[in-house]
Amino acid sequence: MDLFDRVMELSQYGYFCSQILAILMLETTGEENPGLVKAMGGLNGGVGFSQGCCGCMTGGACVISYFTGKGQDVGYYDAQHKPAMAEFTQWFEDEMLDAFGGIECRDITKGNPAKRVQYCPQLIADTFQKCMEILENRGFL
Fold this sequence. Notes:
Elements lengths: L2 H10 L4 H13 L4 H7 L14 H14 L12 H20 L4 H5 L3 H25 L4
Helix pairs in contact: 1-7, 2-3, 2-4, 2-7, 4-5, 4-7, 5-7
């Protein structure tokens, strides 16, 4: 099954952008973490379905941070954390500003739920691919 088809399948199960990114990441690492998937639901639809910052941007940042972030009392963020985040957020802003005029759900969907069906699956797939590219290029995958 290709990435787009997997995104569509997860959408049919009722998952949204950030959750789908988390599931795809967990599938890539061979892990399961239902708590993480549930928590990522808070980012869906522009943070709590508020139509704010796109869940692909916030979810993608979480995917990268899963590999580069700080997760224990001792230790630090990986040295690649900030550069990887900067690369991802710049890519996302550039892509969304060019295609939709902004990075918020309301910019992408124009308040029309049908636009979610039209644009979001490919946006989720593209975001996941970009995150994996950034992580691979930096030696995390």
